[in-house]
Design brief:
The structure holds two protein chains of two kinds.
Chain A lengths: L2 E9 L5 H11 L6 E6 L6 E9 L1 H13 L3 E8 L3 E12 H6 L2 H9 L2 E5 L3 E8 L1 H11 L4 E6 L3 E4 L5 H15 L2
Antiparallel strand pairs in A: 1-3, 1-4, 2-3, 5-7, 5-8, 5-9, 6-7
Chain B lengths: L3 E4 H11 L4 E4 L6 H7 L7 E4 L3 H15 L3 E5 L3 H4 L2 H9 L4 E7 L15 H5 L5 E5 L5 H13 L5 E7 H5 L1 E4 L18 H13 L3 E5 L1 H5 L3 H11 L3 E3 L14 E4 L6 H7 L4 E5 L5 H4 L10 E6 L13 E4 L2 H11 L6 H23 L8 H11 L5 E4 L3 H9 L8 E2 L10 H11 L5 E6 H6 L4 H6 L4 E7 L4 H10 L14 H7 L3 E5 L2 H13 L4 E6 L24
Parallel strand pairs in B: 2-3, 2-4, 4-5, 5-7, 6-7, 9-10, 9-12, 10-11, 12-13, 13-14, 15-16, 15-17, 17-18, 18-20, 19-20
Antiparallel strand pairs in B: 1-8
Classes of the chains: A alpha+beta, B alpha/beta.
C-alpha cells in the first residue's frame, strides 16, 4: 500500500546533481511532493530531503537507484513516524481585515502562529508545523482574504541518537581500502 | 611528475595517453577543433578513425570495448555531433559498456545563449550515462579524464561523457596527471561477504536440480575460468543470457544453451523445474524471465551480482552474494561440494532432442528451396572453426546467430542486448576488428539494420577494415513481421522493404561483394569471402517469411515456450 516516505540523500555538492536525482523519480513517474536541499551536519556533504507517496517496494528500489549515482554517498528512506519533521508557511492578509475582525487574532493565537511584519496594507503571518497544520491555518485565514501563501519543503531529522551517515562513511572508507 | 604549460586540448590528448588510449573513434566539428588540432601532432601514439556519423563512432567504441575489455573512446563536436551519440550512450548504459565520450562545447560565456551548435549535452545525456561532467576550465581536464576512466571501467561499467568548452580547450595551464583510484562517494564493488557465500553454498550443496544462469557480468569480471571451474566441480548445467554468450565454450558438456524469448527449449522450461537457480552476473531481463509471476517460483534463488540495485529488483534472491563475480565465484568454489547431476543433465539432453527435431534441423539443414538464416550462420561458424568474433545487429538474424553460431573464446559475441539498437552491427564490428585485428570478424545484419548505418561502409573502405559483412536479406523487418504474423493477424503494417542493390552499393564504396540466392552457391560464397583479403559484403537472400522459434510469447511463462506456430 502507498504511504508517505521521507527519502534522505547525502551527496557531494555538484552542479547537476539535483537533475540526476529527480530524473530517477520522473522516469518511474513518481511525483515528488516536497523537496529540500541543504547542507548537512558534515562539512562538504549536502542533503536532499524528498517526500513521496509510494509503496514500500517502489521506495526501496528508488533508493537503490539513488545510491548508484556516482556523486551520491548514501540514501535512506523512513516513514513519517521514524522522523521529526517540519515545514514553514507564510501567509499575507490585509491589515484592514485584521483590524475589522477579532477572528484573525483568535486564529493566530490558537494556531501558535506568529506575526512577522505589519504595515498599513498587510500583515505577514508565519506558522511552522506539519503540512496538515499549515494547511488548516490557510483554510481558517482564507475567508478573510489571504493574498499570498507559500509553504516550504519538508525538513526532517531522524529520531536515532547517532548520525547514521557518519557511521556509514567510516564503513565505506574501510571498504574502499579493501577493494582495489 | 614535473608540470608542463600546455593547452587544454593538448592536455586532453596527453591525459588519454596516460590512460593507455591508442584508439579513438570520432567526428570533428567547430567546437572540438582545438582538440583535433592537438591530436594532429600525436598520430604516432594514437590512431583516430573518422567514422561517417557520430553514432558509428560510439558503436565502434562499444565494439572495441567489448572485445578488448578496455575503455572505448570517442570524440564528437557540440550540438548535433553530441546528440548523435545519445543512442550509443543509451546502448552502453543498459549493456554496461565502458565508453568515454569527449564532446566539444561552445565557449563558456556563450553557454545558455542558444549559440550556434549549442545543446545542453550534459542535461540530455544525464539519464544515459553513468557519470557526466562539463569542463569549463583547462585546469579541470586531467582530473576529469582520470575520473572518467575510473568510473567507466570499474564496478558495473558504463558510459561517461565529458563536455569541454572551447575556451577551456584553448586555455594554457600547468599540466600534471594523476590517475584516479578512489572517489569517496563511489564504491565500485562491495567486498564479498563470506557469510553470504556460505549461505549460497549451503543452498547449492543441498540442490537436486540446480541450474546456473550466467550473463555479461562473468565476461566483465574476467570470470570465465571461475565459471567453468564452478560448474565442473558441482556438475551444474549452465545456460546463458544473450550477453553472457561466449563466456563458456558452446561445446562444453555443461553448456545447455540460451535463455529467454528465443532461447533454447531446455534451459527455459527447466528453469521452472529447478530447485535452485544460481544466477551469475545477470539481471533477469524481461526477455529472459517472460512472465515474472510465473518465473522460477519453485526454486531457491542464489544471485551473484555486483550492483546492489539489481538484487531483488525483479526476482527476490534467497541468497544474494554481492560483489565482483570473479571474487564471489572463487570463494564459492571453495565452499561447494563436488557433485554430478547426471539424470538432471539428461533431462536437458531430452529437451535438446525435441528442439533439434522440431526446430534446429530445419533451420540449419533445411530441406526446402529457400535459404534460411540458420544455415548461413552454421556455415560461417564452421568455416572459421568456431573461432571468429561475431557482431550481430538486432532482430531475427540476431536471435538466429546467437542460437547457432558457436564460440570457443570469450569476448567473441558483440551485440546490442538491452537497448536492441538496430544499425549496431556494422559500426560495432569496426571497433571489434580494430580491437582484435588478428581474428576473423563477422558483421551480421538484416536488410533493415544494415541500412540504418550503411554509411559506415565508407569508414570500412577508408581504413580497409577486414570485416566479413553478411547481410541476411528477406526484404522485411523480419522480427516485427513475425510478431505481426503471430499476434496482429498478419497485418503487415509498414514492414516490407524495397531495397537497393547492396552489391552495387558495396562496389561503389570500393568493397568486394557478391549476392547469393540459392543453396548451391552459399558455401563457396562464404569461402570466397573468407579467402578475400579485406572487407567483403555478402548479401544472402533468405526466405521472406521465416520465423524464429522457439518463442516465449510476450506475457507468457517460460514454461509455455512454443516450438512452432
Amino acid at each position: 500500500m502507498k504511504q508517505e516516505y521521507i527519502i534522505t540523500v547525502f551527496s557531494e555538492d555538484h552542479i547537476g546533481l539535483l537533475s540526476r536525482i529527480t530524473i530517477i523519480f520522473t522516469r518511474r513517474k513518481i511525483n515528488i511532493d516536497s523537496l529540500t536541499v541543504s547542507a548537512s551536519a558534515i562539512p562538504g556533504i549536502f542533503k536532499f530531503t524528498i517526500v513521496i507517496n509510494e509503496t514500500p517496494d517502489r521506495v526501496q528500489k528508488v533508493v537503490g537507484q539513488l545510491e548508484k549515482v556516482v556523486d551520491v554517498m548514501k540514501a535512506y528512506y523512513n516513514t513519517n513516524e521514524e522522523m521529526i519533521y517540519q515545514e514553514i508557511a507564510l501567509y499575507k492578509v490585509s491589515t484592514e481585515f485584521l483590524l475589522e475582525s477579532d477572528q484573525i487574532e483568535k486564529i493566530v493565537r490558537n494556531s501558535g502562529a506568529r506575526i512577522l511584519e505589519i504595515t498599513r496594507e498587510y500583515v505577514v503571518i508565519e506558522k511552522t508545523g506539519h503540512s496538515k497544520e499549515t494547511q488548516q491555518l490557510f483554510e481558517e485565514l482564507n475567508p478573510y482574504g489571504v493574498s499570498q501563501f507559500n509553504r516550504s519543503g519538508r525538513v526532517a531529522i531522524t529520531r536515532s541518537t547517532i548520525e547514521k551517515l557518519s557511521e556509514f562513511l567510516k564503513e565505506r572508507d574501510a571498504m574502499l581500502e579493501q577493494v582495489d | 611528475m614535473a608540470t608542463q604549460r600546455i593547452s587544454g586540448s593538448e592536455a586532453v590528448i596527453k591525459s588519454l595517453l596516460e590512460e593507455g588510449v591508442d584508439t579513438i573513434f570520432g567526428y570533428p566539428g567547430g567546437a572540438i577543433m582545438p582538440i583535433y588540432d592537438a591530436l594532429y601532432d600525436y598520430d604516432q601514439q594514437v590512431t583516430h578513425y573518422l567514422t561517417r556519423h557520430e553514432q558509428g563512432a560510439i558503436h565502434a567504441a562499444e565494439g572495441y570495448a567489448k572485445v578488448t575489455g578496455k575503455v572505448g573512446v570517442c570524440f564528437a563536436t557540440s550540438g548535433p555531433g553530441a546528440t548523435n551519440l545519445i543512442t550509443g550512450l543509451a546502448d552502453a548504459q543498459i549493456d554496461s559498456i565502458p565508453v568515454v565520450c569527449i564532446t566539444g562545447q561552445v565557449a563558456s560565456p556563450l553557454l545558455g545563449t542558444d549559440a550556434f551548435q549549442e545543446s545542453d549535452v550534459v542535461g540530455i545525456s544525464m539519464p544515459v550515462t553513468k557519470w557526466n561532467y562539463q569542463v569549463t576550465h583547462a585546469e579541470e581536464i586531467p582530473e576529469a579524464i582520470a575520473k572518467a576512466f575510473h568510473i567507466a571501467l570499474t564496478g558495473r561499467p558504463g558510459p561517461v561523457l565529458l563536455d569541454i568548452s572551447k575556451d577551456a580547450q584553448f586555455a594554457l595551464f600547468d599540466f600534471e596527471y594523476k590517475k584516479c583510484t578512489k572517489i569517496r562517494s563511489y564504491l565500485p564493488e562491495y567486498p564479498v561477504d563470506p557469510f553470504q557465500v556460505k549461505a549460497a553454498a549451503d543452498i547449492i550443496n543441498e540442490a537436486k536440480k540446480p541450474i546456473v544462469l550466467f550473463g555479461h557480468g562473468v565476461i566483465i569480471a574476467h570470470a570465465e575460468d571461475e565459471l567453468k571451474e564452478f560448474i565442473e566441480k558441482t556438475g551444474i548445467p549452465a545456460a546463458w543470457t544473450l550477453l553472457g554468450l561466449s563466456a563458456l565454450s558452446t561445446d562444453h558438456p555443461l553448456n545447455v544453451g540460451m535463455l529467454g524469448m528465443h532461447g533454447n527449449y531446455g534451459p527455459n522450461i527447466k528453469t521452472n523445474e529447478a530447485d535452485v537457480v544460481i544466477s551469475i552476473g545477470m539481471r533477469f531481463d524481461d526477455r529472459v524471465t517472460g512472465k515474472v509471476a510465473a518465473y522460477a517460483r519453485q526454486a531457491k534463488i542464489v544471485h551473484l551480482e555486483i550492483d546492489p540495485a539489481e538484487i531483488n529488483k525483479i526476482i527476490k534472491a534467497d541468497a544474494p552474494v554481492l560483489g565482483n563475480a570473479k571474487k564471489s565465484l572463487r570463494m564459492l568454489i571453495d565452499n561447494v561440494n563436488p557433485n554430478l547431476h547426471k539424470e538432471w543433465l539428461n533431462e536437458f539432453k531430452a529437451c535438446d532432442k525435441i528442439e533439434y527435431e522440431k526446430v534446429i534441423s530445419n533451420d540449419i539443414y533445411p530441406q526446402k528451396v529457400g535459404l534460411t538464416m540458420g544455415e548461413v550462420v552454421r556455415i560461417a561458424s564452421e568455416k572459421t572453426n568456431h573461432d571468429a568474433v561475431l557482431v550481430t545487429d538486432v532482430g531475427q538474424q540476431q536471435m538466429i546467430a546467437s542460437r547457432y553460431f558457436q564460440f570457443t573464446q570469450s569476448r567473441s559475441n558483440v551485440t546490442s542486448g538491452g537497448l536492441g539498437t538496430m544499425g549496431y552491427a556494422l559500426p560495432a564490428a569496426m571497433g571489434a576488428k580494430i580491437g582484435q585485428p588478428n581474428r576473423v570478424v563477422f558483421a551480421m545484419a538484416g536488410d533493415g539494420g544494415f541500412q540504418m548505418t550503411i554509411q559506415e561502409l565508407g569508414t570500412i573502405a577508408q581504413y580497409n577494415l577486414d570485416i566479413k559483412i553478411i547481410v541476411l536479406n528477406n526484404n522485411f523487418l523480419g522480427m516485427v513481421r513475425q510478431w505481426q504474423q503471430l499476434f496482429f493477424e498478419k497485418r503487415y503494417s509498414f514492414t516490407e522493404m524495397k531495397n537497393p542493390d547492396f552489391v552495387g552499393i558495396a562496389k561503389a564504396y570500393g568493397l568486394a561483394s557478391q549476392k547469393v540466392t540459392s543453396r548451391d552457391q552459399l558455401e563457396n560464397a562464404v569461402q570466397e569471402m573468407l579467402d578475400h583479403q579485406g572487407p567483403y559484403v555478402l548479401e544472402v537472400v533468405v526466405e521472406k517469411e521465416d520465423n524464429v522459434f522457439p518463442m516465449v510469447p510476450t506475457g507468457a511463462s517460460i514454461s509455455d515456450i512454443i516450438l512452432e506456430s
